[in-house]
Amino acid sequence: MLFSQFKWNNAAEISPYVPASASLSFQKMEHALGSVESLFLLNLLGSTMLARLQRIYDERMSSDTATQELERQALDIAKRAEANLAFWWHFDSLNLRITDQGFQRQQSDEWVPAYKYQEDRMRENFHQQGLNALDALLDFLADNVNKFPEFRRSDAYTRRQLSTVRNRAEVEQYLNIGHSTLVFLRLQGEFTMAAGADLQATMGATTYNQYCAWLQAPDSYPDDFPVSFEQLRQKCVPVIVFASALRLVQRTGTLTDRGLYFEAVKAAASVNHTKTPANDKQIGDRLATLKKDLLESQSHLKSFLRTYYPDLFGDEPGNIVRDNDNHNAFFAI
Fold first, then answer.
1. What confidence tens digit (pLDDT) does each residue in 81-100 have?
2. Residue 95: CA atoms inside 13 Å, Cβ hemisphere, count?
3. 225 with 210: CB under 8 angstroms?
């Protein structure tokens, strides 16, 4: 486990990630930390990469100084994710104790239980911080995969490489989701349908099938092409993003985990900014904007394909060939 009794030191080990008091014991947190490590880190990173993090924690690091610094950063992000997710996933059980008399809530003369709104905010904060740290860990390991070859064997890395939209940052380039991993996960559920329907309709079947083949085997991409495969993938990203957001809003009316909300400033409110559920007009306006953005991104992608992949894209049905240098084409009414 990435936390231990030996290094706990009156909660000093977990304090950099969660503001815990010195009275928090390792015995209280041991089950929560261990279960989260198995449920989230093991499933995402795989047993080989998690074993590498465990070796780093046990101070059995690489002999290379530069690699050691990367290992420390990876371990720090992983511990941040584990600590926050432990408090979120086991929020209720950590607030209670189980005895032969049932479940009991602790209270003392100096400290009293938090208010309901405070608990809700803390729970949401742990949730967001934990998922964002997981997202940061995946980004960090992918960026430094040559130093962490164990990550290549994980399901997360495989899914990431076979996806057109690979992380939250690529979504944020075109759609403001407030740096929320929760919203990214909701959009991710629409990526496959958006690729198979909207992206394929934009590129045409032949070009789309070739793109998918290159996506699965980037090394097969021809070296003599004027643009790189990464440039082609980046042109496809906004089509997937806007199509997925459009589908999500059309199907469920939601763009966040709580719904499509709008923020406004109210002078008489107790806080400056208030959020309220979107009404029908606001949802309609949002849909219209997403449709416009999708059409523009599809147009840009088609123009890119006509310019750099004329032999592949020019033969697709519906594409107009304007080459009439030999004057063999004519128009008749």
1. 999 999 988 877 777 655 55
2. 15
3. no
Task: HSE, CB side, 13 Å, CA atoms: give it for residue 252.
Answer: 15
Distance in angstroms between the alpha carbons of the first and the last residue of the chain: 77
214-238: burial string, b at 16+ Cβ within 10 Å, e else: bbeeeeebeeeeeeebeebbebbbb
Residue 268: predicted pLDDT: 45
Cβ neighbours of residue 270 closer than 8 Å, sequence gap 6 or more: none
262, β-bridge pairs: 276
Query: What's the rounded Cα separation, in Å, for the pair 154 and 49?
Result: 8
Q: Nearest to residue 151, comparing CAs of 21, 301, 48, 286?
A: 48
E-assigned strand segments in 214-271: 261-265
C-alpha to C-alpha distance for 146 and 78, rounded to whole angstroms: 18
Low pLDDT (below 70) residues in the chain? 96-114, 252-279, 314-333
Residue type, 96: L
Using the structure block, give the residue that is written with the tokens 């909207």: 198
Rounded to an integer, what is the distance from CA 3 to the centroid of its chain?
Answer: 25
Specify the pLDDT at position 249.
83
Rounded Cα–Cα distance for residues 53 and 75 (Å)? 6
The Cα diameter of the chain in Å comes to: 94
CA distance 123 to 104: 20
- Cα distance between residue 46 and residue 36, in whole Å: 14
CA torsion sign for 258, 260, 265, 268 is negative
Among residues 192, 197, 162, which one has the least CA distance to residue 294?
A: 197
> Which residue in this structure is represented by tokens 């989230």?
40
Tokens 């405070």 found at: 118
pTM, entire model? 0.70
What is residue 321's predicted lDDT score, i.e. its pLDDT? 45
pLDDT at 184: 84
